[in-house]
Amino acid sequence: MQRLPLIVIFLLCIGLAYGQDTHFSQLTEENGLPQNFVYGIVKDKRGFIWISTGNGLARFDGEVTKVFTQRDGLPSNFITTSLLSKSGRLLFGHFQGSISSYNGAFFETIIGDTLNSEIVSIAETNGGILFAATRSSGLITWRDDMKTPAFLFPAELQGKIVNQIKIVGNQLITATSEGIYTFQIDNQRLVFNDAPKELMYEDITSLETFNNDSLQFWAGTSGNGLFLLRTGTFTKVTQHVFTPALVGTNVSDIVHENSESLWLGTYQKGLVHLTLENDSIVKKTEHFDETTGYPIFSVNTIYIERPGTIWVGSLSNGLIKIFESRFKHFSTQGTGISKLYGVAGDDDRYFVGTDLGLFQFDPTAENTRRPFIPIPAFSRDPVTSVRFLNNAVWVGTYNKGVQIYYPDKNSIRSLESLKNTRARLFEVAPDRSMWIATMGDGVIHVNQQGEILHHFTTKSGFIHNDIFAICADAKGNVWFGSLGAGLAMLDGNGVLHRLSQEDVFPSHDINAITEHKGIVWIATDGQGYFKFENDQFTHVGPAIESGSPFIKSILVNNNRLWMSMRKDIG
Known about the structure:
Blueprint: E1 16-17, E2 21-27, E3 38-43, E4 49-53, E5 56-60, E6 65-68, E7 79-84, E8 90-94, E9 99-102, E10 107-111, E11 119-124, E12 129-134, E13 139-143, E14 150-152, E15 162-168, E16 171-176, E17 179-186, E18 189-194, E19 204-209, E20 216-224, E21 226-230, E22 236-241, E23 247-258, E24 261-266, E25 271-277, E26 281-288, E27 299-306, E28 309-314, E29 319-325, E30 329-330, E31 340-345, E32 350-354, E33 357-361, E34 372-374, E35 383-389, E36 392-397, E37 402-406, E38 411-414, E39 423-428, E40 434-438, E41 443-446, E42 452-456, E43 469-472, E44 478-481, E45 487-490, E46 496-497, E47 510-516, E48 519-524, E49 529-533, E50 536-541, E51 553-557, E52 560-564
Antiparallel strand pairs: 1-30, 2-29, 3-4, 4-5, 5-6, 7-8, 8-9, 9-10, 11-12, 12-13, 13-14, 15-16, 16-17, 17-18, 19-20, 20-21, 20-23, 21-22, 23-24, 24-25, 25-26, 27-28, 28-29, 31-32, 32-33, 33-34, 35-36, 36-37, 37-38, 39-40, 40-41, 41-42, 43-44, 44-45, 45-46, 47-48, 48-49, 49-50, 51-52
């Protein structure tokens, strides 16, 4: 298949796109959430998002929400916090003090409703020791092997409200209504370390560890901004951050994405993003709330799924997913173009085949300039395929056959032998010859001058006259994909192997084929995608994010496998 710039895979609508923009989607009771009050968000090893609410647990696969309640084995329907343990087990805390787990098949109760106090936070050491904090009845500790839990209630925490716990190094940090208290972890015992005097009687509402520093952590407050602390033998405040965005608000959650990015959930002021310098100096503040067009008022929890994708659990507005679109849209409005058929590019030039002919595309164009520049010689003749070869653009037109355009000279060479050919796609072989899939006339193999070397049709025993995918691999094989006749391969000796028709390959509908480092990847219409390696086919699966088996195109770029599906890109 053509190794075009990655931009080719995104021709899903009228226009070309790249860059960044921020969007959101919302999951509420109206589309499957059991309640609009979200208290916990976690992603399991299979990619499901688990959402804790006051009326059940929801599992979201990107499209469908499945709800779990007491009928499915939960000790109660009010889930207040969650954690994915290092062993892959999902852990859930409940409103009346019970703790449950999910092992991928069923729910188990670790401890029942005996404490009559909400589980506010769960944390795990590197050694697999788990701690759960209740609001007012102490701590619970157990190992991830599910052995009998132990109860701890240090004197320093008695009479105080615990809001969150975190593990920093070998210390358990507790955020309370009267400051921060730190404890050394000794197996499943806790030994009091200290409580920084600067925060004594401060209502600490949230904590967050540093990704790149095992001794630093952030602390959010109720009305007094953020504090940066360093622990060790003693715990001390190193910085106080108090921006206008935090005046008079409760910082309910903190997520340290990286050294330049800190996310804050607040009550009544939505989501706040701080751009940092040197991990602590605030350079920029951004608001994601109702005043900026986001359905976020009070935030209870934040979860970063991956860079550029953040989930926000709100109080009354359900679950909100904020994500950066990695595309900038270039509109064809005003050009008259209604269809884009293909794109070809080298290091700094792009050419687009459209229903109105060939256009040069300028991705640096601003709003005041037109990004689509028509090539007059191809005006009004639909261009169905384009491909760069040797500083020239091979152009498949609907009415004038295959032509070669030389952009440096602004000249055209018509290929007499291909003047009646309607090209669907071009594929450049390792020897720089060209394979052409036609519309209804099989496959034509030509040299660099455009002279026909071979013409394969059903009359000569070929699999189909309409081929939708070609890949000339590094071993001298040429792969062909069709809709109906499936997959075939022409080996270096000129022998055609009808892989689908001979039941060697299971799918008869092939949309795309590509090769990377000796591995051939095949996208099918209904059976996911496959790879051919070491002389055998392996069914890799559907697209990971959406689970769709309808893979429309496939491309390897920078060691990443990209796919377009019916509604998604993965």
